[in-house]
Amino acid sequence: MTNRTTNPKVDAFLSKAKTWKEEYEKLRAIVLDCGLTEDFKWMHPCYTLENKNIVLIHGFKEYCALLFHKGALLKDPRGILIQQTENVQAARQIRFTNAEEIDELKNILKAYIHEAIEVEKAGLEVDFKKPAEYTVAEELQNKFDEMPALKTAFEALTPGRQRAYLLYFSEPKQSKTRESRVEKYVQQILDGKGLNDK
């Protein structure tokens, strides 16, 4: 049961691609061969199973990649899955710098895609770190001690919003920068808004 239906938005994306065009087309053919539905999300070709995201094709300056949405759950016998940054919990990439690499890995890529489909069918979920498992920047903790209402408002935020703040506040090396970041977002937290909410 191979679904070869292409999406016009992906056709348009490929026709405009200035880099990685040949690589994108090869990856697209491989993924479509695996029976997934072609969609276009986050400005990139995305492949789904019953509306659940399985794999995405995207490109950067240095490489293009297949991004597995639940890649952390794949066995990865070849050791080719890459965690983009240390804060990415679920997704994993397989990166390419030329079309030949894709040709060489064609059957392996299909095996990984089929495993990703099985992971989705089995209803497996990535066990995300809870906000409580992240480090609370000392400057944020001081503000919580000074303003109990801020701590209450912070704890009322969704786990994703809490996580975004915790990562953002603890990022800078200098205490002064961390402190100014905390100060800048006090009102937004009190308003129940996330880091990127307007």
How would you summarize this macromolecular structure in one to three sentences?
With 198 residues, the chain is α+β, with helices and mostly antiparallel strands.
What this model shows, in words?
Helix 2 packs parallel to helix 3 (99-121) and helix 4 crosses helix 5. The protein has 7 helices and 5 strands, in the order H-H-E-E-E-E-E-H-H-H-H-H. With 198 residues, the chain is an alpha+beta fold. It folds into 2 domains: 8-121, Aspartate Aminotransferase, domain 1 (Alpha-Beta Complex), CATH 3.90.1150; 131-190, no CATH class. 46% of the residues lie in helices and 15% in strands. It has helices at residues 8-16, 21-33, 99-121, 138-146, 148-156, 159-170, 175-190; strands at 37-41, 44-49, 52-59, 64-68, 92-96. The chain is elongated and about 60 Å long. It has a 5-stranded antiparallel β-sheet with strand order 1-2-3-4-5, covered by helices on one side.
Contiguous helical run count: 7
Helix content: 40-55%
Rounded to an integer in angstroms, the radius of gyration calculated over CA atoms is 21 Å
CATH structural class of the largest domain: Alpha Beta
> Sheet with the most strands?
5 strands, antiparallel
Number of strands: 5
- Uncertain spans, ≥5 residues at pLDDT below 50? none
Cα distance, first to last residue?
A: 45 Å
Round the mean pLDDT to the nearest integer and report it. 91
Strand content: 5-15%
Overall form:
elongated
Quaternary structure of the protein: single chain
CATH fold field value of the largest domain: Aspartate Aminotransferase, domain 1
The number of domains is 2
Summing up helix and strand content along with how strands pair, one would put the structural category as: alpha+beta
